[in-house]
Amino acid sequence: MMNGKFKKVTALLLAVFICLCSLCITAFADKTVYCSIIDDAKLFDETDAEEITQKMRSAASVTGFNIIIMTSDDVGTAKSDSAVVDMCDVLYEQKCGKNTDGVLFLINLDTRYHYLSTSGSAINYFSDARIDSFYDYITSDMRAGNYKAVALGFLEKTIYYFDLGKANDQQEVLGMEVEMNSFRENLAFNMFIGAVIGVIVGVVVYSSISSKMKLQRPSTRQYVLNNSLNFTVKQDDYIGTFTNRTYSPRSSSSGSSSHHSSGHSSTHHSSGGGRHGGGGRHI
């Protein structure tokens, strides 16, 4: 009789284990990345677009970033630089989601304010100084109208900066919001998995133990000998206090830090609510 019950419990446990494995494989599978050329200004012919797409896929494979290259000859009625920035940030969020890892580069033939928007961990790789260096790198091709070279240069720099490693140590600042969002999204799933595993283990252990022995509540008399407990009175005597002081000189200030230091990434929030880094330049 017990043997039949044990087989049923084992079968149930195996079925649940298979389900959990499937869920874990799905949860921890490699993320898919979004790559796209949005050529509204019609700057690339079919051959150019194919070459850029291949390079884009290679960059996405190396970095794990979502990558978007956009061209435009009409940024809308709002022509200000701030409007261009928000347009890029919001477009990225619409295509790839808020605070995901990725970068969008706009070639803007309307106001000539070209912009690079970063999100998620890509913020750490594209510091202010690296973005400035990137624009220096593409300026001659941009002025010459060689837009395919500009797009390929952007992708080359994306791979190059990723290979260099994070430009700053702002993970506590930049990554906290992203990590908290990810934590909230996965918290319910992780709690469910933990609860299921806990219940299964508890049921199996309880069934195994209860089938082999009868639990009884022991009496304290089994552990205490008659007249074996003695209580003594202790008294604390105040002796005095001792304070240890160490001298720690203040570090002298060497001047204010530069906003565009090599390791700093300026950030802001879009009208859509996502956090972004990035930078632009009139060329």
Descriptors for this entry?
alpha/beta, Diaminopimelate Epimerase, Chain A, domain 1, 283 residues, elongated, 6-stranded mixed sheet
Order of helices and strands: HEHEHEEHHHHEE
What does the average pLDDT come to? Answer: 77
Distance between the termini: 83 Å
Helix-and-strand structural type: alpha/beta
CATH class of the domain at 35-174 and 273-278: Alpha Beta
Rg, rounded, reads 31 Å
Major sheet? 6 strands, mixed
Largest sheet, order of strands side by side? 1-2-3-4-6-5
Helix content: 40-55%
**CATH topology label of the domain at 35-174 and 273-278:** Diaminopimelate Epimerase, Chain A, domain 1
Architecture (CATH level 2) name of the domain at 35-174 and 273-278: Roll
Tally of helical runs: 7
Segments where pLDDT lies below 50 for 5+ residues?
Answer: 25-29, 172-185, 238-261
What general form does the structure show? elongated
Strand residue content: 5-15%
Number of strands: 6
Summarize the structure.
Helices cover 49% and strands 13% of the residues.
Structure description:
- This protein has 283 residues and is α/β, with parallel strands linked by helices.
- 49% of the residues lie in helices and 13% in strands.
- The protein has helices spanning 2-27, 46-63, 81-96, 122-125, 128-144, 147-164, 171-210; strands spanning 35-39, 66-72, 102-108, 113-119, 268-269, 275-282.
- Helix 1 packs antiparallel against helix 7, helix 2 (46-63) packs parallel to helix 6 and helix 5 (128-144) runs antiparallel to helix 6 (147-164).
- It is elongated and about 95 Å long.
